């Protein structure tokens, strides 16, 4: 639990210090995630979302994986290229490689990074802005999009806002 709280505090600090609405391209290290498949083919209704998300969190808790309190979503590359904001997995980062059937390795590489502050309902708009800005800057997506909740709406209940980081591996479009 202590590690989960430390990871959560790190996310809150990152969310407080970042610059919103600006795309940055930078090298990122390999990361380890516990990812639970959603099996969604379209946007889920609220009941389906809550059940699937709760099952992911329950899985992490039952496996005693020291994951932080916030979670994220993975939008596969093929969906992202079609601008289809439907997640294939929910994930939580873990400190290192663990032996687990749901271990997902986010590869190291050159990533576009975009921070969004707003209501959770605005994430789809942020996703489109992110993809548009990647292309405007002369890049193209070459990996899945990761939507990582850094500061949840519950923490910022006075404002109703949350902070999310969108990242995806990119390459120069002229390659």
What does this structure look like?
- By secondary structure, the chain is an alpha+beta fold.
- The protein is 30% helix and 35% strand.
- It has four helices and eight strands, in the order αββαβαβββαββ.
- It has helices at 2-17, 46-62, 77-81, 123-136; strands at residues 23-28, 31-37, 72-75, 89-94, 103-106, 109-118, 139-151, 162-172.
- The chain is globular and about 45 Å long.
- The model is unreliable at 1-16 and 153-157 (pLDDT under 50).
Mind telling me the C-alpha Rg? Answer: 16 Å
Indicate the mean pLDDT: 84
SS elements, strand count: 8
How do the SSEs run, as a string of H and E? HEEHEHEEEHEE
Q: How large is the share of residues in beta strands?
A: 25-35%
> Class by helix and strand content?
alpha+beta
- The low-pLDDT segments are 1-16, 153-157
Ends apart, CA distance between termini: 45 Å
Shape: globular
Helix content: 25-40%
Number of helices: 4
Main β sheet profile: 8 strands, antiparallel
Which strand order do you get reading across the main beta sheet?
1-6-8-7-3-4-2-5
Q: Which key phrases capture this entry?
A:
175 residues, alpha+beta, 30% helix
What secondary-structure arrangement, pairings included, does this model have?
Layout: H1 2-17, E1 23-28, E2 31-37, H2 46-62, E3 72-75, H3 77-81, E4 89-94, E5 103-106, E6 109-118, H4 123-136, E7 139-151, E8 162-172
Antiparallel strand pairs: 1-6, 2-4, 2-5, 3-4, 3-7, 6-8, 7-8
